[in-house]
């Protein structure tokens, strides 16, 4: 992706988020140099990888295969391992109309996916084989706002604004906006996007970026380079 495209997506996403009554935290709007100074007093931004996350999964076609995310909070894996403390994470996502977030599952993360507003959120579901691999013949069950719901392999669950689904590790899923763009909330256990995503196809989690202009704001994928050492 070009950095200019990423900058534009940030502005469009912020406008949509505000239309639905949400406001991102102040550090979201800091220019890169200001953020670099701010994280000296707020190292949890970098260690928790809080902030902007825009991906085309390395495939070069964001409109068709992509996702906007902003990580608002993220706990500590050590707390999750001991069963107490900050074991949770929260994100805002935007899935555009017919824009696919590709088939994947998580190893550790359980997540509630919530339609916060906009169009219908479509989620295609499959179960896992005994080793956790994708199984086109496997169904399963999920909980939708507390109600148990069985699914057959390849069923498409449709969530209207206000509705949600709980996905457990091993629930294979792909999703997209159906009939328009969707603002999505994600509440989950501790999140590690570098190690916890297993994709059906061999694709990347983050984008390759062409630096055609200066960044408006840093992406979480910039942190390793900018804050190295």
Question: Descriptors for this entry?
Answer:
5 helices; nine-stranded antiparallel sheet; two-stranded antiparallel ribbon; alpha+beta; Jelly Rolls
Low-confidence stretches: none
**Quaternary structure:** single chain
What would you report as the Rg, rounded to the nearest angstrom?
Answer: 17 Å
Q: Tally the helices: what do you get?
A: 5
The count of domains is 1
CATH topology: Jelly Rolls
Strand content: 35-45%
Question: What CATH architecture label applies?
Answer: Sandwich
Mean pLDDT: 95
From the spread of the alpha carbons, the general shape counts as globular
Q: Fraction of residues in helices?
A: 10-25%
Q: Provide the succession of SSEs.
A: HHHEEHEEEEEEEEEH
Structural class: alpha+beta
